Amino acid sequence: xxxxxxxxxxxxxxxxxxKKHVCWCHTENIGFGEVExxxxxxxxxxxxxxxxxxxxxxxxxxTYTDVKCDLTTN
Length: 74
Description:
The structure is a single chain. Helix content is 35%, strand content 42%. By secondary structure, the protein is of the alpha+beta class. It has one domain (18-73). The strands form 2 sheets. A 3-stranded antiparallel β-sheet has the order 2-1-5, with helices on one face. Strands 3-4 form a two-stranded antiparallel ribbon. 8% of the residues are buried.
């Protein structure tokens, strides 16, 4: 019983640790860049998803639509 509780608590603590994540935004053919986010996975995913909400990106007077952002952990 004690072992199960210790393992569960350890799992919860490790899950909520802050780590370096990378939010990479791109279209189907063009990558626009990445942003490093040092936070918990849940908060980093939220920030990356928020970046995707804009849906457009302008570069060199060209506006790209359908921008997607993906989160990875380093």
